[in-house]
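Look at one record.

>
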Amino acid sequence: MSESEMPSVQLRELAHIRFPETEDSDARALYIDKPENDGSASSAMMDPATLDPDNILSATSLRVPAGARVSLGSYFNAFPAGYWQWWTTVHVVTLRVRTSGSGRVTVFGSNSRAARQQVATKALSGASSTETFELPLKTFGDGGWYWFDLAASPDHDLVLEEASWLAPDNGRHGTVTLGMTTFNRPAEAVGNVRVVAACRALDACVREMLIVDQGTKAVRDDEHFRTAEEEMHGRLRVIKQGNLGGSGGYARGMYETVKGSADGTKSDYFMTLDDDILVDGESIFRSCTFADYCTRPAIIGSHMFDVYRRGTLLAFAEIVDEYRFNWGPTTGLGSIDFTIEGLRARKNLHRRWDADYNGWWQCLIPRQVIEEIGLSLPIFIKWDDSEYSLRARAAGYPTISLPGSATWHVSWIDKDDATDWQAYFHERNRLIAALLHSPYKIGGRMVRESVNIFTKHMLSMQYYAATLTEMALRDVMAGPDGLHSVLASKAAETRAMQSDFVDGTLITGAADRPVVKADRPVPRITKTHSPNPLTLVPWAASVVVRQVFKTPTALSRSHPERVVARDDAAWFFLPKLDSALVSNATGTGVSFYRRDPKQVRVQLKADVELHMELMARWPSLARQYREALPRITSMEAWGETFSHYSEENEV
């Protein structure tokens, strides 16, 4: 057979080169990489911070002014070759670039150590030019990227009309059910539906978008709902149910994905979506496409950027420390500000980083995984996403946090969820997850971690949070069989307790804040003045003695001794005060903290007794929770819960 008679390989788009449709300069740094401070001749390199917005012609098109150069070695436009080589069946990726004007396109590649080399270059000229580059995926086992730069000729502009990364079509074209859980955010939810509807790249893969409406402000009553419904062309469905939290909302999406439509049609994937994120259609497309090429089913997570600092990635990969049993970013991979330094210059981002879990702000889960390991734990919020990935990993299904697929969301550092009603769920669900998955006989350091949390709340005059922590411990030791029965009531119960504690009440009006007064010398100590590790034990002993036995001053009952910024409200500073006005994370108000020795004595006693019991019962509790896991996460158990809390028929 001659070369002309050989069948051509059908290529499929994996990712589209694109640009922000916002004038936020922070966001531009995710699409156009910053010039590097490496001493090279880069004076003509376009900096996204100073880029004239008029040069962004559309979501796919960019003008490079005469004599200028731009690098697309950026978070959204570079190709994460290491992830594609390691996790998928793709061996060659094709870059296709369509331009007009004159200049040059240069392709670069890097390895896991960020060493880069020029791979190919081509001159561009004429009214329209399409160039393709076939790039092998052979040397990216531990990481590395492909990207390209564009340089305009000295006398003429160069316009990138469009570009994309492609691979041979493997014949797998999975469909996805998008599951958005919402509580009293109808406008945000409907707005995100319209973003999905407007993204043509999603037409073939989104089989259905499911909104699980758990609030009192109905999504269907939003003024733009009918328009969104029309734009989705029959692919939008709303289910109204009681407030079962994130875990109950996403479990409903999993349930509907496994159950399928009335005609028997089922999606291949389910994707979780928060209601208050900024949905990015291209990122959904990339996750679904990547899943189609994976060598085995895998959970495909999307990254989260800070909605208030558009160029800051909150975590590149997240892990669970199995000894402490705490979750968080891999060391060095948190709060990455691309406006300061771009992707090419960040050596640690050229390595492939494997994740233990991905947050459910946006996360794709194959239906096969749900059918095998079950639905979410019935725990309302917190730890449902990380526990699910640990459960999936034990069954042989990895979690991949895919670079280039992301959304924007409020950062967890801008929330008070460690000290408000959510403190209960932080403590209870972390303990449950450790009982289910800790490889250590008595949970490693988990019991000690719990003691520390309880004690810090007490020493910091956070009696509301301490009481919730105590409640969480008691509920954990009551066993797993009551989790479904309290799913809809526990959050309301913890919120109702807030008014019983002065430290749990938020003061928002300036006129309502008590005047700061003190009848004793009060040092100005900030968070930076932490105890010396060598003297921590005697310091802690003296603090406990003061907390338990020393009577607060009479004036501190009605007047705070200090105003304490939220960032300074540390457990090693607050115990020095008899009272304080402490601001919240959002800056909308303050709480009046007042030291109460009687409360401390009661809670210290409970602290010791409960944690001694937890330690003694850990092995038996672990067995109890692990034996119950398949039952409480089953379709049958969740089906009964949904039947009980469904408010009306589906819309």
Q: What stands out?
A: Residues 176-278+287-301+354-403 form a domain with the Spore Coat Polysaccharide Biosynthesis Protein SpsA; Chain A fold (CATH 3.90.550.60). The chain is about 30% helix and 25% strand.
